Amino acid sequence: MKIIRIGTRDSQLAMWQANWVKTQLQLLYPNLEFELVPMKTKGDKILDVPLSKIGDKGLFTKELEQGLLNGELDMAVHSLKDMPTMLPKGLTISAFCEREEPRDVFLSKNGTLLEDLPTGAIIGTSSLRRKSQLKHFRPDFDFMDLRGNLQTRWKKLAESNMDGIVLAAAGVKRLGWEDRITQILSENMMISAVGQGSVAVEIEEQRSDIQELLSRLNHFETEQAVRAERALMRKLEGGCQVPIGALAQVENGQIILRGMVASLDGVRLIKAEATGTDPEMVGIEVAERLVALGATSILAEIR
């Protein structure tokens, strides 16, 4: 019997996600055999440079995608927020798994809320999206670059003079660290990364056999929401390393999408929203509203 190979990054969180997919498939298809194939990606190897300096095209996905294209892998499990909005030719996202909490969380050293931190507090994050929104909220904050897996980041918080770190809620919850969360950051303070909280399974387009297996893992409302967010990102030609945030929710069949673009210093921060039923159209509409408010010049400065 043929073993179905599931590619994944080898970090603890990525392994958790891939294991979750494997377990779901195993329950649905008890007569099939699934095997995880852990790999290191470029983004896992270069840890001493902020992502925005390396360029972001497929930093955490390329090696896995290569495996799909050359037949080493049957599917690859990714954090959707790591995936470029334009996939390599011949590949497609076959399943958008049900989304975990999409927002960001603040983990502080001593339980102090973000708004109560002392002047000049140091926050750990490498994300330009997080930095710019936090600077907008509190221009006095200082930042320390923070790369590596969640364990590394938590350890750095303990061993440094940082006051706290900002992480994606989904990863923190998946590792069972709820008790470490000081606060979930409201949308007014922080709009999430595109696709944050959703696990995506990528396959080769021609593999209808694998597509069929995965169809039962796809979560329709998650797919609608993240497609709208990715359409916004694609229209603005933003990668993971620009201060663009987007969060869509689906209520009674309507997609409500909020988008944000900010300058690196946090001084200029624009938001727009739209509602509709077609994810692509809603994404493009919010992107166009952001452009009308000056998004293009903000993004041009950053690039």
What does it look like?
The chain has 303 residues and is an alpha/beta fold. The chain folds into three domains: 1-97 and 198-218, Periplasmic binding protein-like II (D-Maltodextrin-Binding Protein, domain 2, 3-Layer(aba) Sandwich); 104-184, Periplasmic binding protein-like II (D-Maltodextrin-Binding Protein, domain 2, 3-Layer(aba) Sandwich); 219-303, Porphobilinogen deaminase, C-terminal domain (Double Stranded RNA Binding Domain, 2-Layer Sandwich). The chain has eleven helices and 13 strands. The chain has helices at 12-28, 42-45, 51-54, 62-69, 128-137, 150-159, 169-174, 208-214, 220-235, 279-292, 295-302, and strands at 3-9, 33-39, 75-79, 91-96, 104-108, 122-124, 142-144, 164-168, 183-184, 199-204, 244-251, 254-262, 269-276. Helix 9 packs parallel to helix 10 (279-292).
Quaternary status of these chains?
single chain
Structural class: alpha/beta
Overall pLDDT level: 92
Overall tally of structural domains: 3
Distance between the termini: 50 Å
* CATH architectural arrangement of the largest domain: 3-Layer(aba) Sandwich
How large a portion of the residues is in β-strands, by DSSP E? 15-25%
CATH fold label of the largest domain: D-Maltodextrin-Binding Protein, domain 2
- Biggest sheet strand order reads 2-1-3-10-4
Helical element count?
Answer: 11
CATH superfamily of the largest domain: Periplasmic binding protein-like II
Q: Please estimate the helix content.
A: 25-40%
